[in-house]
Amino acid sequence: MTGQPPELPLADLLEQEIAALETVLDALDAEQQALESRNAEALTSATQLKVQRIEAAKVRSEARHRQVPDAAAVPDDPELRQRWESLRDLAEACKARNERNGLMISVQRRNLEQTLAVLRNETPEPALYGPDGDSPQRSRRGGLLGSA
Q1: For each of the chain's 148 residues, which pLDDT tens digit applies?
Q2: What is the residue extent of each domain of the chain?
């Protein structure tokens, strides 16, 4: 005996992974709601839940991957192929929602930094290039008045 649990049928593994990804999707939706409401406590809870659910989905994915590493290895069975497609669609939806949440976080962070800069009476960093391709300071000093 090797000490490893017996492998489940592929259909069961796919269903378990689908269920796990559905819980990840729910956690990502909760994270989005917390971001939209700007509720720090809800965001912390949603993020912790997301991490837990991603870890659980990863365990399911690894178990399935031992039997079927990619679409080419899925047996030619319509039911299994349909489950594989559902799994792939869910994974893509999770990725898209996670990217959307990341974008929301970036925008909120930038807004917070700008607000803090105003409150601290800090000037924003100058642009690296002006409309003419020169740095803003160079284009101001390099004109006719600057050379007189």
Answers
A1: 444 455 778 899 999 999 999 999 999 999 999 999 999 999 999 999 999 999 999 999 999 988 888 888 888 889 999 999 999 999 999 999 999 999 998 988 898 888 888 888 876 665 566 666 676 554 444 444 444 4
A2: 10-147
In CATH, what number does 10-147 get?
1.20.58.300
List the helix and strand counts (H, then E) for the chain. 5, 0
> Where do we find the tokens 């809870």?
45
Amino acid at 79: E
* Identity at 49, one-letter amino acid code: L
The Cα 71–Cα 69 span in angstroms is: 7
